[in-house]
Request: fold
Amino acid sequence: MSALLEVREVSKAFGGVQAVTRVSLDVPPGDILSVIGPNGAGKTTLLNMISGFYHPDTGRITLEGEDVTRLSPSHIAQRGVARTFQNIALFKGMTVLDNLMLGRHVRMRSGVLASFVYWGLAQREEVAHRKRVEDIIDFLGITHLRRVPTGALPYGLQKRVELGRALALDPKLLLLDEPMGGCNHEEKEDMARFILDVNEEWGATIILIEHDMGVVMDISDRVAVLDMGQKIAEGTPDEVRANPEVIRAYLGEAKNGGRRGLSRDVAQARPAERPRAARPPGHAREGPGDLADVHVGPVLRAGA
Reply:
């Protein structure tokens, strides 16, 4: 199967700091690829290059066979790439509904004059976009909040609204930069379910940056590991979990020889499996079939 996204030997430096060095990725259609690594490993810089916010110094990025290396973020969005951000980037004074309507802007075809007159094509187009946005609001379970300013929502719900704005673009490729960062256990479970549903029911290909190893290992088809701007491993969750380079570089080792940091989620074998819902024959992922299957174990700090 040909890849939806191909990243070939991309590098990016900021002054004397080499943020990403010759990283390559292939992302087949329908996959969930998680990109993990310590803080400062280059994960967000990689997403910024894919989405056009940065242009790589060297290397090439193709989407469905088209070279998009030098395209602007707006042109890449028009080709079906949407993203969320580490730091919530919503318009806090606008309602949930209005924030999601902004996500439809690349799908709108009415010109300035038609929009000014409003009646006719512009009106019909707005009605169609509004219906799509209402469907997304219902999917995310925030119908009762649709008229609430996003700045008045709890942090976890703002994360959900940001996901909704990305989904409003109807993306082929969805880039999620720490969508569960700062969320509590229940909010992480909800977000994990939404990500799986978007992938399995809507057919979106997903690149996920996330620090919760329980979530990463449960919902990913493949995992790529970055360290100091370089890709040190890529494979299935089980392959990455057992990779000694990942254990050394991503987890580190204490002076007494014991591992420190995110210890047991990656280094230990998978815990006993809970009953899972049946998947279609030949399904590639062993991810959770039900919300209760998502393992979101605590992240252990160094020295804990």
Notes: The chain is about 35% helix and 20% strand.
